[in-house]
Amino acid sequence: MTITVLDTYSAMKRILRAPAADRVALLCSMLEPVRGMYRYFPGDVDLAAMHRMASGFPLDRDEERCLDALETLAEAGAWERMRRALDDALALQSAATPGLEVPDITVLFVLGDPEDAHFMGPCLGVTGNGGFSGYIMITLWPFPENVERLEATAVHELNHNLRYGPGGVVWNPMTVTVGEHVVSEGLADAFARGIYGDELGHTRIGVPHLRDEAVFDKVVSGLGVTGMENFTAWVHGDASAERFGATPVGLPTGAGYAAGNRLVDTYLAVTGRTAAQALHADSSEIIATALRHRGPTGR
What we know:
This protein is of the alpha/beta class. The protein folds into 2 domains: 1-168, no CATH class; 169-299, no CATH class. 51% of the residues lie in helices and 7% in strands. The protein has a 4-stranded mixed sheet. Strand 3 (126-129) and strand 4 form a beta hairpin. Helix 9 (178-196) packs across helix 14 (255-271) and helix 11 (213-221) crosses helix 14. The mean pLDDT is 96. Pfam families: DUF2268 (PF10026). This is DUF2268 domain-containing protein. Residues 101-287 form the DUF2268 domain. InterPro entries: DUF2268.
């Protein structure tokens, strides 16, 4: 098993300095190692289009701004820090889960688009995707808060990758519920917080709502919802739902993360398990246990 953090620093610098006509081809070359992320998509996936949809850095403007951001990340040792964090977290998880099947994992770390109002605003300049076994993708703008949380962000996505990896929880698009998604975010945060502490380990978008009872109750009311087109509103909130053409449900950004942290923290406290030990715990068990022992706020 190997975790490969792609050298996207060199690749992005080359793209941003290249003639405009050459940039799409160079971008697609950089993205080719993660094409397998889209293996369940119908037809031949346009990697450049997926990059744009994921708020990736622009190819036709802001070159100097993006090059400066790249240097900020390089000076912070971003790629090396993530590689060490992932190796250390995997060792911790493997010790807690004897016999854990771990695939080779390819990590793509790219700059976001500084003019994307949704990415830079509600998303606070960072998004991640670790749910496709064998691949982790992180899109980030180097706000100081995001640079400080690089390790925790990577480890959060690793937790998703291992939960849905070989021998783990099966994400069946036909039957999966909002509850599974919410619990997975809570578990990934709990895993990161177990290593880096609450201040760095919490996903930033969920923090403002950790003690909001109305938000928690609203998310709980939707835990049984199915249909993945509905998940964005319940987990990420209305602003993201509107961005991607889904129906809002009356929730702020990060609501599902906040609720997921509370559900998972209660479950772990009641059972005495660690987040690493609960990697493959059934989400319905976590939810039922947590709601039976619901506390007034947070942890």
